[in-house]
């Protein structure tokens, strides 16, 4: 199968701080990848490089056949194919839920309003929140907001979905409603890259799990091997820490 | 193990609610509170009754000359006699009907804008139409209306024209300047910073003087730049700088995540700024923007120094009339009330706007 994302020798510095060290990663079309690792390991930064929310100094990044360079047109092309779900939802508080969803389809993809609304309602139903369409983001709970954010990401009909710690800002009782939606999505064979600490989710849906530490990819493996047969000491230590609690 | 039963809500204890409780808690809580309450009551008692006597109970309302004054209080006959000066300046008496039509047009425009225009395009059309109609009505010189040169404009009319133009033009320019100041392009950023800091660092009076002396130098000889136009240019330039700082404050209140979310959806820079960032930034900036507008409304009185006669300068002018010497006090009090009505109206309106744009209903 073809690679939809290809990262080659990617290096990034914040000032003098080397955040990403020689990252090499290939993602196949339809693959579901979970990235985990301690905080500050560069997992979010790497994910955000894929849609150019972060720039990098060295290396190559090809997304869906488009090589990422400093060209506004190409960046927008990539962004219209890569949707992102943020830790803090980042819904637009001045727009109703429905308007949040149809904004990009109407203005980026030039879809007529009635079609955009139709699509939006389809996805809102899918994340079980269609009855809230005319409310404003701040009237919803965290879990509902994140489901809306996922629906917003889906509305642009992306080929790749990036999740940047989608459940980290949620109250415990709301995590599952978001994970359920993500599990449901995983059946669609969309390419998904999820930065998350939800190991149960990783075991259930991931094709590959990647462990990052100190700006490097330390280990990558199938979920089975990853959790049952970790190779590196760093990963063993990490797994011990999250599983004992 | 213990399992507790569910409890129903009950009313608050007596004496922790109601008017008497409020008085006791807010006005008479401690000896110091009591002292301050009585001190304020004393001062109010000293000031309010004499003021009411002067403005209403001892004032003269009927008659047409200074000699008709009967009471020892204010002589409002003066204001009545000079009302058209206060409102319109030297605007020709036989053309005043145009301004009265304008008042009607204003009301119609407000209704159109608020209730009739549904889409944004219609609203913009209504909004843009207003100054055009207003300009034609006030200035004339077309559609069979006699031309009234701008040096005849004065009083409240002039104050309103300057404030309206200043506020309406300075907001879009201020927005551009605020974007410029946040731009990643060094040239645009520095130009904006220099402009804003320069203008903010110079008093408005100085700018007005410079406007009346310097601006003509930029134009070819013979091009007579009218005084009002010069004042409008200067005031718009100055206000834009202040507006842009208010909007920058709003822009900075928007979390970085909102920019990233807009970016990640593939919006272009202008789409991102106009559809996502600006509406939120403006909402945050409303109190400051209204503050600036109120200040501008009052600052228009400075145009007096370049020879334009706004509302405030009318007091000076009318009380120099040999029939009405010594009537400054009445004039100033009257003008104060007009300023107060407009400024209070603006501040109320800002509260309504804040409520309407508030989408934080929790």
Shape of chain A: globular
Structurally, the number of domains of chain A stands at 1
The average pLDDT of chain A is 89
Q: How is the quaternary structure best described?
A: heterodimer
Largest sheet of chain A: 6 strands, mixed
Q: With helices defined by DSSP (H or I, 4 residues minimum), what is the helix count of chain A?
A: 9
- Judged by helices, strands and strand pairing, the structural class of chain B is mainly alpha
Please give the share of residues in helix of chain A: 25-40%
Which percent range fits the helix content of chain B?
A: 55-70%
Number of discrete helical segments of chain B: 14
Strand share of the residues of chain A? 25-35%
CATH topology-level name of chain A = Rossmann fold
Cα Rg of chain B: 27 Å
SSE topology string of chain B: HHHHHHHHHHHHHH
Distance between the termini of chain A: 39 Å
Low-confidence stretches of chain B: none
Name a few traits of the molecule.
heterodimer; A: 245 residues; alpha/beta; Rossmann fold; 4-stranded antiparallel sheet; globular; B: 362 residues; mainly alpha; MetI-like fold; 2 domains; 14 helices; 0% strand
